[in-house]
Amino acid sequence: MFTSRERSAALTEWQGEGVVKAVALLLPGGFVRSRRGPLKIAEVGLQDLVAELTERGRSDGIAVHLLHYRYRGWNGDAADTAVDTRWALDEISRRYGDVPVVLIGNSLGGRAAFWTAGHPSVVGVAGIAPWLPGGDPVEHLAGRRVLIIHGERDRSAASAARSLEYARRAREVVPDLGRYEVPDGRHYLIKRADDVRALTTAFVLAVLGAGPSPAPSGDLRTPLPSRAGSLSGP
Question: What is the dihedral of CA 192, 197, 200, 204, to 10 degrees?
Fold first, then answer.
């Protein structure tokens, strides 16, 4: 009988070939507390981003993986999602050697991404509506590139107010941190999914040296640019 104790984290297979020079690791959402298996709908919600990053990054040797957690919950002091993410980062180093990694976390996965960004392989972290409770540390973000995208009216546990407070503290150690808001957006940014995907992809590729940097976000409440508009800086 398969029990929760027998679960283990796993990475999806990279849909590419050749020498891997960098990795984009995607971390799906979940719940504050739950010992059930990974939330499939949260994983499905990242598939378009996985596909775009895979297509755009393949020629530059960027492997794209999505993490299957053991459990769909953070689960208090156990921090299960962060534990799985650290395992994934160590596994990436084992498979590919000393390659740079960008973490992309959605909601619950956003907290896991920011918690583990101090891993020596991590060069950048992106949070899409990330859950960032007050008091979470920021000092380990020094030397990384950071992007946060949030719905202006997100008042869930992963609220825009919390990520704004986190971003203000984090900017003390990451001066060029970018944070963008979706006007009238709530937690699920489905109506602006194309724009979220475009900005996130541009950020990841830029951090990994495979594309131009997105236009800078001086204001931590900069409106999310349209995919049809310019995402590139000078």
Answer: 180
